[in-house]
What we know:
Blueprint: H1 2-31, H2 71-77, H3 82-92, H4 94-103, H5 108-115, H6 119-123, H7 134-139, H8 144-167, E1 172-177, E2 182-190, E3 195-208, H9 211-218, E4 232-244, E5 251-262, E6 268-279, H10 285-300, H11 306-317, E7 319-320, E8 325-326, E9 330-337, H12 342-353, H13 356-366, H14 374-393, H15 396-403, H16 409-412, H17 433-442
Antiparallel strand pairs: 1-2, 2-3, 3-4, 4-5, 5-6, 6-9, 7-8
Amino acid sequence: MATIVFYKMAHTTTRQSLVAHLKRVAGLRQTRSPFSSSRCPSVTPLPGAGLRFLSHGTAGRPAAGRTGRGALALCGAAAVTVAAAVAGFLANASHFQRAEMATRVSPAAAEEKEEDGDILERCRGFMSPPVTDISVLQGRKEEMRTRMEMLIMETQADFCRALQEVDGGVFKVDRWERKEGGGGISCVMQDGKVFEKAGVNVSVVFGNLTEEAARQMRSRGKVLKGKDGKLPFCAMGVSSVIHPKNPHIPTVHFNYRYFEIEEEDGTKQWWFGGGTDLTPIYVNKEDAFHFHNTLKEACDKHHSQYYPDFKKWCDRYFYIRHRGETRGIGGIFFDDLDTPSQEAAFQFVRSCARTVVPCYLPIVYKHLNDSFTDEEKDWQQVRRGRYVEFNLVYDRGVKFGLATPGSRIESILMSLPLTARWEYMHEPAKGTLEAEMLEVLQNPKEWV
Length: 448
């Protein structure tokens, strides 16, 4: 009870400043200067007193002994009914709802108006001029290739500015060209105050598929009919992986992409793919609920089965088979989406892309000044090692990138952390929070 009272007091006295701070994150888009580093001000994070809602203990201590951390989540989990658990969460963690509202990049009513806006004016808000020449984009404004490129550029800009606001650092913007066709924009921030490594990449590439890349697609059931052995393609997407310094701030990954292939008779195959998933180092049920519920709300606007289906797909995809565990606590993941129509699929992808700030930034602010021990940092390093294993052994995007001539290796491997650790026969002691995390990874749970 004492923990809950403390939380309510902290919540009451700080939520106004938190919401105001997060509104500034969302508002940067209206005040930035075009293609200038001055559009990304350095802002000192909020003082710790207003954000440390829950305390943390030391690694290796029995889970039951850390009564401060996770106490509210345990109270909710102990409720007899789902309704009671949800009610408890809403009563004691409404800062997530308020922060989600404050960090929503663009209300639904403004989305259509924004897409109808002038191409040049929208491009002024990006981290860099788009990969495709602006005059070309203006000339084919209604084509899906243009609409998707504008979406991924906007997603990159919105997420980068939100991360700069909380960290105080500035992203290095690195434009690159692919001699075979296209190029990309890699935005990377390393050794910041909050983030050890943060990368948000956009790529727009085209040309002819290699036989190896075509084989990968045929293995997924694609029927591809090339002309004279060639398969013209266009692929574009935005991809991000964030590795925080603090082990109580989770790693997050998202990727949203569009693929188009022209067959020998001139017809085009197209599909969308992507998803967003969370990789915490320690279990936090409030964070998991907020993250998954934000994604569920976006999915539910389009189809009631999207969230449950894509949540299961995410758990299956981000699975480290040789370890027998998932990479994290999941989220949503989908690929080869070409129904019910191109427009409907695009609208769904746009809704998902617009969740990347509100599903993650409130969690970052919540744990911004949590203390941690050397043992907890070591556990983070071990879990990062698992992250590396998945990306290099199983990740489909990495495999496709490495099989595509002219791909930029630095951008493909941007997802890897600066530091990681591999310990021989590492196994956390029973009853610890580290063991609790491992149990969740070995047995995926329903968080919403």
